[in-house]
Prior knowledge:
globular; four-stranded mixed beta sheet
Amino acid sequence: MKQIKSLGILITVMASLSSCMKDNTEHVFYFYTSADISKNELNLYVDGNYKGMLKNISSVPDCSSPDSILNSMIIEQFRYGKYKIVAKDENENIVIDGIIKFKRNSMSSSGSGNNGGISINGSDNCVIVDVFI
């Protein structure tokens, strides 16, 4: 009887630990800017790493936008977590400085900038991020 009880406890502990395991799935993020960048470029950095120059998209994209629009954006893959987002102008001045948090069933953004910020929306497998001024 003790062996059956011990086995039951072991199975319960293993099930609990497996549900706590970190999700290593990488999720697709699409970065763009809704800002008019005809006079000033915006360069994107995520956690200090340069990712590219943000492109202006003429209409607000979403996950059902045509591939021609989605593929023109900066595309990165990230796991659930918290990421520092920085946009710099062509003189390396920080224009936008913020954080995006991406968790199972929730996402948020916060930050500061000169009349700008970060907007994040989408779903678990497609996240659209607007870095705007």
